[in-house]
Structure formats: C-alpha cells, structure tokens
Amino acid sequence: xxxIFRHTTLSATFLLLCLGLLACAAPPPALDATGGAVASAxxxxxxxxxxxxxxxxxxxxxxVATALVLSVVHPNAGNLGGGGxxxxxxxxxxEALDFRETAPAAARADMYLDEHGEAISDRSxxxxxxxxxxxxxxxYFELHQRYGTLPWKRVVDPAxxxxxxxxxxxKRLAGALEGSSKLLGRFEATAEVWxxxxxxxxxxxxxxxxALADSLQAYADRGPVALMEGPIAAAVVAAxxxxxxxxxxxxxxxxxxxxxxPIRFQAFGWDIASMPLPSSxxxxxxxxxAMLERLDWVSKPRFGADRTHLLAEVWRRAYADRFLLGxxxxxxxxxxxxxxxxWLDRRAMTIDVGRATPSDEILPWPGAPDESDQTTHLSVxxxxxxxxxxxxxxxxxxxxxxxxxxxxFLLNNEMDDFAAQPGKPNQFxxxxxxxxxxxxxxxxxxxxxxTVAWRDGESMAFGAPGGSRIPTGTAQVFLNVVVDGDGLxxxxxxxxxxxxxxxxxxxxxDGALSPEIRQELIRRGHEIEDCGAVGLVQIxxxxxxxxxxxxxxxxxxxxxxxxxTKGR
Length: 568
Ligand code: DON
What we know:
This protein has 19 helices and 20 strands. By secondary structure, it is an alpha+beta fold. The chain has a domain at 263-373 and 449-543: Gamma-glutamyltranspeptidase, large (L) subunit, C-terminal domain (Serum Albumin, Chain A, Domain 1, Orthogonal Bundle). Helix 19 links the parallel strand 16 and strand 17 (528-530). Helix 2 runs antiparallel to helix 3 (59-73) and helix 13 (281-294) crosses helix 17 (470-482). The protein is globular. It starts with a strand and ends in a 5-residue tail after the last strand.
C-alpha cells in the first residue's frame, strides 16, 4: 500500500501568495507509515522509489531509481549530464559519494575572461563551454554497486519506461519550460525535444524522449561505460564541439566518482553526517550548529529577534570562511581547521548579541595563505532506518541549455560554480577566492548539503536545492525539528531567512520576520531584503518505534510518500 502526496503547482513568483495561503489553511500533514519513505521533486520519481522499497530494495536502490526518473521527468535539474553528491548511512557505514562534475582537461583559469580580465557575461552559463564533465552516470552506478541489493536493471527500468512510454507534463514543468524558452530555443536539438514547434509543452501533455530512453537502456544493459565511452560519448563530444565546447572523449572516459569521509559532528543530541569538499555545505552546516550551541541559541525565544540575529551572525562568519574553499587539491582551508574547537570558540566570541558585525569586518580564517535559480534533492529512508540524502544538479535550470540530440539529455553549466573571476560575485552572488579558480580536472566548489542525522532509534535524511541558500535552508529545517520539535511538514513550511556574508544583508522569505523583529534587527545594524525561497527542503524520518514520515517543500515541486508496511 502506498500513498503519494502531491503539492499543487506553485511558482517562485507565487511564493507570496502561497505562503499567505499556507498561513490561512492548515498545512498538509506529513505522511507517515513504517516501511520507508521518499521525498523528491516529482510524484513519478517518488512513486518509483516507493515501489522499489515495496519490492524489498533498500534506501540506495530507491534513491538511485528516484534520481534516474528525475533525469527524465524533471529535466530542469534531474540529469545524466550533470553531477551531485550523496550522503548515506547504511547500517554502520556512513559515507559520502562525490559525483561532482570536473573541469575538462582543456579548461584554463582565464577561460571566461576577456582581454581586460573581465568576465564575459554568460560564457560560464550558456552553451557547452559552461559544462563540466558529467559525474552522474558513474556516480549512480557506483552507489548501487556498493550498496544496492536489487538488480541494476530493475533500478534503471522505471526511468527507461518514463522516457520510452512517456510522462505527463506537470503545470510546474510547463511553467519552467515557458520561463526558460529563450535558453532552450538557442539550441535546435534542445528545442526539438522541449519546445516542439517553438512552443513549450502544455501541462497535461505526454512527452516521450526515445533518444533518452535508448541512452538509459544502454546504461541499464552495460553500466556507465555505455555513456562514458563509445557512440553516446562521441555524440556528447560532437555536440559540445559544434557549439564551441571543449569536452573530450578522454574527459568523459576518465571521470570517476569518489567516496569521501563525510563531515561528522554532534549537535543538539544528534549525530550528523554531511557533504565534505568539494562542497562547502557540510562545513557551513557544521560551523552553524557548533556556533549556535556555543551561543546557547536554544534558550532564546523562538519568535524573537535574537534567534534570527544570531543565525545571521553565524552565517556571515561561515560564508566568509567559504571564500577560502575549493576543490580539495587547491582549497586554502580544510574542514578540520574550520571546524576546530579553537577556531569556533574564537568565531563565536566575536558575536555580539546586541549588534550586527558588518561583513567587511569579518575576514576568512586567518591561517589562510592570503591573510594580509537548478538543483534537486531527494531523501530516502528504508524499513531498517538506512538513510540516503542525494542532491544532484545541472546548476542553472536546464543547465547550459544544450541537449545532446543522439543521447537525449542536457549538459550542465556547473563551470559557473568556479570563481570565473575570483573576488567577483557569481550567479548566486557568492564571492569566491583563488582556491576555487578554474583549473583542469578540478571540481568546482558547491553549496549542496545532503545530510543524514541519527540518534537512538531514529534517523533522518534531508537536503535542498537553492544555490548559496542550500546550507542555510537545510540548517533551519533541521533546527526546527531537533530544537523546536516541529513535525516534518511544519518544519519545512515555516518561512526562512538567509545570510551569506556578501552581500551584507539578511534575506527574508515572506512571513519570516514580524514587523517588530524586522525593526529590532535593523536597530542592531542589519540590512534586510525580501527574497524568494531559501532552498526547497525534502526530508524523511525513520523511527524504530513509530511510523516513517516524509515531507516535501511546498515552495517547489514536491512529492512525499511512504510505504505502508514495515515487513518486520
Ligand atoms: O553546487 C552548487 O552549489 C550549485 N550548482 C547548486 C545550484 C542550485 O542549487 C540551483 N538551484 N536552485
């Protein structure tokens, strides 16, 4: 037995209206049962994950099946031509898989700059020069090889069927296609699939993508070599070259995902594991929790100015340190350094409860040498409490816009996550340093924060898309659950805030700050700007003595489901 909850379609533009409605109507209850749970960005993908759990697959089987269906039905972010991260807890094993894209071997630090050293607008965003070497084909297979239990073909099959037999376009996908029609229309092959006759697909219409079905079938039959070598890889390289890209056959064949020890820490009575470099997400989440504990954040009134003030102060400092981060080979600071008790004590001590510290007064970690809007997240727990948090992305919505005609999938524009021009803001207004400069084979710094957390008899998986707002959105939902005891849906629904050092202002979703709190924060020296969604968080929870729960974020396309029987 299964139940799928499907959120009504909402666009970012309607966030205000949506939050208003949420305030009037009781939020939908998080679903619960005992055999496992899945939360993802699309009902068909969630249903595929649930079915896998019902057939006895574990959390990894379900996560991979869900991710692959997203690569068909959620083309803005789900992908075979992008990359991502997964943090998992399978029995006693706690691990992180890095399947982040890498810069092609021909990439150079100045490849996005003009002769005056200025960034050329859009060059790191549109077309295949913006594409990193895809990591998803190797990553999903690797995840399944190490931990999956069902046959590989069974796990890939729902995605093959979605692409071959067709899937129904949701209102939200129709809206995304409409919103990105200029990008999608730039490349003929992309337009043929996603803008037939020059028009985005209508909501309710059925889309079939035979070339993608063939790619997925080859992947099911032969594993990642089917996509990383041979005719499909040659088609990727040819499409890239046709439009000025630099991807090579060697780049594709040489890609490897990497198992890394996750960032591990304890906070608020929970054990937590999150993503290490090349993502900054786990470090930011770890620094956030550690500083909040030092500042006794828990004891501050839930709906008072102190809590928001302290969050903003903590994030200013964490994002200042982010300036030093990059691919592990060039990062100017390590997680051990940035999460050392001595450094966290020093950082927390500089926080004044009554006054905002201007971001210009906050320098990154002093041990460093230079002292002087698309992603998707899915969360799965199974009947045994194993947990998978997986975030995957093309970076911008529909990536670089180029679809490889023979392969049916879009290429990412992850190269923009490098500091194309160190010290200058990127599309997420993130100011990043030399540590994250473009370099051949390097992985670009990320903010993705797939996270698992557990304590006796309980485990959770969560994370979000949202660019630079991923760690802060993820942290707030976690805090709502573990500090304030919110149910999952309430924790996700509650309006959120964000700060990222630069620009020096608190960003607030509609309804996040009452007029009184807003006034008090301004009095303490903060600037406040309104913003859209601070991440789209998908979260699931398993309890030894109770039902599993799942909640999807109403700010975006969201679908949460549970298995109705525990089987033990
Ligand atoms: O890795 C990162 O941090 C970005 N590429 C994530 C992009 C993203 O979340 C966009 N979607 N909302």
